[in-house]
Amino acid sequence: MKFGFDIDDTLINLRGYAFTIYNKKLNRNLAQDVFDALKTVEIHEPFGLTNVEGKEMWNTLREEIYFSECPPYPDAVETLLELKEQGHEIYYITARPGEHGERTMNWMKKQGFPVDDDKFYCGMKDHEKVKIIEELGLDFYFDDKPGVLDTLSGGSLRVVVRDQSYNRHLHGERLLHWKELKELLSSEEK
């Protein structure tokens, strides 16, 4: 089978990691429950930043957020390695800026994710991401972003929502933890 994965906030805890960096840089100590209650992808609001200030801060810290110690979600690496060992194809489709493509791919490899260079897509807008997902003929696709998930439906593609506080309004299959993938796949075989 062909499996497609978004990266940020699907396989790695990018926003959670960025939230800790914001706390440090802004000399704040906002608790985890503040982060867990966010209803937006953007994380700047609890810090009292405007949209413009939030975007500027993210862009200023992008290097540190993307390429330092951002942790994969528990069992994400192991789950994808197991899929690869079982002979499944693994595709990564991320809307991260294209100039970060090669470094992102190398960073993912360093974290232990099974990455084939020809199955790594980076640097597209959401509508372009949807087109790539459809053209690849994936069996499963995992993402967190409502703007992408809302536009994927129909056909044989099985779309799975990687649970986040800002996407709980979406209907459909949901993954809370990567250990749940085996159960989800066993329901496919029935």
Features:
single chain, 190 residues, alpha/beta, 6-stranded parallel sheet, 8 helices, 5'(3')-deoxyribonucleotidase, EC 3.1.3.-, hydrolase, Nucleotidase, 5_3-deoxyribonucleotidase-like
Helix-strand blueprint:
Blueprint: E1 2-5, H1 14-25, H2 32-36, H3 51-67, H4 76-85, E2 89-94, H5 101-111, E3 120-122, H6 126-136, E4 140-143, H7 146-149, E5 158-162, E6 173-175, H8 181-189
Parallel strand pairs: 1-2, 1-4, 2-3, 4-5, 5-6
Tell me what you see in this structure.
Its EC number is 3.1.3.-. The chain is an alpha/beta fold. The model has no long low-confidence stretch (mean pLDDT 93). The chain is globular, with a radius of gyration of 16 Å. The chain has helices spanning 14-25, 32-36, 51-67, 76-85, 101-111, 126-136, 146-149, 181-189; strands at residues 2-5, 89-94, 120-122, 140-143, 158-162, 173-175. Helix content is 42%, strand content 13%. It is built from eight helices and six strands.
Entry summary:
42% of the residues lie in helices and 13% in strands. With 190 residues, it is α/β, with parallel strands linked by helices.
